[in-house]
Q: What sequence folds into this?
């Protein structure tokens, strides 16, 4: 199965592969010439004291070797090009598949494991995927031409030479299975080590480790995991050594047997000395390809673990994808409706439970309530980062699952509580929202978010690299830059998850003014713990345990004198108490 799938990656390069096979055929034909020339030197030129013939034959040996070498260089070049392009195609296919998967997959997967499959797994099959066809063809040709030449020289010595071949074949299957199992274990452990490194050497993980003084514990864990990986690598390297030692004995003992049998024939005059010398020279072309074919079988079997891991990911089907008849939506008015919407991250545990809400175009809806009430999960559902377990969500009367993901997400601007910035320049981070934006448009968005003064103070302005996850900027500066990014996108629907939580009072007021201008005529869903930021919302939805338990304007909910009113009074009484102190 994997073999047929691997061939699909080879097919685009069939012309280069055909040329490689031509070079292999030429090299195989040239390879039998030097032993025949050596035979002529030993049997004709030297006994006949013919210096001219000796010179010609010697130059022929050098010329044949040069031709073989040049052919090998061309084959290596072509093979390397094909190999690297196939690796490129595989990495691209896997990366594209991973990007197509939903957040659900990434919340369950480990980053280090993903990196391991993208890098070491694909690198591990480099030689096999690109060289198997060439190696098989090359060795079959060499074996065929060598056997034919040997049979012409002396069929009895040929049979003697073939007696040792079964010893090259018998242990292969057992060794291959064992190495395949160890290879799979090693790759799994390698993924664990990579995950630990990614978590503990990332800035957030490193800060946690240092602040809790756990460097020694993490180092001990890394030492244990790395030692287990080392032990698996040693076992894998040694498991076939006895087999390869047998191969060495066979390929060494074979010429000795031929020397003895051939020597006896020379003594009786049955064959010439040159024939025996040529025969021994040809043996390397017999045992070498046979050994390579057997080793190739072992390598293919052990590399099957890599193929299984790679195709396991390539076989993953996105649980969120365009429907076959999905349509693109133009600029939306922003009418959002939830009808009986539920979401389960784990079976039987609902993060959102039977929600029915209707948010009119151009209005602001605020989601409030305790942590874990399902507020952020509600915002995940709108751009289809997750799909509802039950119910449906409508945008301008269209079920969002009937819209193309590209057109749906083009309508949405999302600012999360945890701002993420790539390790790139400010400009590059802004262009994620709008790749064709001009410098003036970027500056305008940044000015609206009250962050342009910060950017102008950076060493290279918009071209300053912000560092991994934006750690060269403060929390408030990163948040303002994230808001500027959404302002640049100019979406029809805004999702703000505590978008101003990291801002100081002055910056928050400036950003709120900018957001006020942006929200004009646009539908906005805001998550806020500080109720002061949502008092002017058209509708406030109080959520608890995944349900909307109260809804209405601020005045209406205060008049209801229930959960929202209690939360409001707690916050403002606390604030007044602090102010009085």
A:
């Amino acid at each position: 199965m994997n073999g047929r799938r691997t061939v699909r990656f080879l097919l685009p390069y069939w012309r280069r592969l055909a040329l490689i096979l031509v070079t292999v055929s030429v090299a195989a034909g040239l390879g039998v010439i030097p032993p025949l020339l050596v035979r002529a030197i030993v049997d004709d030129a030297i006994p006949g004291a013919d210096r001219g013939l000796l010179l010609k034959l010697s130059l022929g040996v050098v010329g044949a070797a040069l031709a073989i070498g040049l052919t090998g260089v061309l084959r290596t070049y072509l093979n390397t090009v094909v190999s690297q392009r196939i690796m490129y195609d595989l990495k691209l296919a896997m990366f594209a598949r991973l990007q197509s998967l939903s957040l659900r997959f990434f919340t369950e997967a480990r980053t280090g494991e993903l990196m391991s499959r993208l890098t070491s797994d694909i690198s591990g099959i480099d030689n096999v995927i690109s060289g198997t066809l060439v190696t098989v063809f090359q060795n079959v040709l060499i074996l065929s031409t060598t056997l034919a030449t040997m049979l012409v020289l002396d069929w009895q010595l040929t049979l003697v030479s073939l007696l040792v071949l079964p010893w090259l074949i018998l242990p292969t299957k057992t060794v291959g299975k064992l190495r395949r199992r160890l290879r799979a274990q090693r790759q799994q452990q390698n993924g664990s080590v990579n995950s630990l490194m990614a978590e503990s050497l990332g800035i957030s993980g490193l800060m946690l480790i240092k602040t809790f003084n756990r460097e020694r514990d993490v180092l001990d864990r890394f030492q244990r995991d790395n030692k287990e990986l080392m032990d698996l690598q040693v076992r894998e390297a040694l498991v076939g050594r006895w087999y390869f030692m047998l191969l060495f004995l066979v390929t060494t003992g074979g010429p000795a047997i031929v020397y003895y049998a051939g020597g006896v024939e020379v003594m009786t005059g049955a064959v010439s000395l040159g024939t025996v010398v040529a025969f021994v020279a040809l043996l390397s072309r017999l045992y070498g390809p046979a050994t390579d074919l057997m080793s190739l079988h072992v390598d293919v079997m052990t590399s099957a673990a890599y193929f299984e891991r790679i195709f396991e990911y390539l076989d993953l089907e996105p649980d969120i994808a365009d429907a076959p008849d999905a349509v693109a939506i133009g600029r939306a008015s922003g009418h959002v409706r939830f009808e009986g919407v539920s979401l389960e991250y784990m079976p039987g545990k609902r993060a959102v439970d039977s929600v029915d809400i209707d948010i009119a175009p151009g209005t602001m809806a605020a989601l409030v309530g305790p942590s874990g009430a399902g507020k952020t999960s509600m915002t995940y559902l709108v751009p289809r980062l997750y799909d509802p377990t039950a119910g449906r969500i409508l945008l301008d009367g269209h079920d969002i699952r009937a819209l193309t993901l590209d057109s749906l997400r083009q309508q949405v601007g999302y600012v999360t509580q945890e701002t993420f910035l790539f390790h790139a320049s400010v400009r590059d981070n802004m262009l994620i929202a709008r790749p064709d934006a001009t410098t003036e448009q970027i500056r305008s968005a940044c000015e609206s978010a009250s962050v342009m003064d910060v950017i102008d103070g950076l060493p290279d302005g918009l071209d300053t690299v912000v560092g991994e996850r934006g750690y060269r900027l403060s929390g408030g500066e990163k948040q303002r830059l994230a808001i500027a990014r959404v302002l640049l996108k100019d979406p029809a629907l805004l999702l703000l998850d505590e978008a101003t939580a990291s801002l100081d009072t002055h910056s928050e007021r400036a950003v709120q003014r900018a957001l006020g201008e942006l929200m004009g005529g646009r539908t906005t869903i805001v998550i806020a713990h500080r109720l002061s930021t949502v008092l002017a919302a058209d509708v406030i939805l109080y959520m608890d345990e995944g349900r909307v338990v109260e809804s209405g304007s601020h005045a209406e909910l205060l008049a209801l004198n229930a959960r929202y009113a209690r939360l409001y009074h707690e916050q403002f009484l606390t604030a007044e108490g602090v102010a009085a102190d």
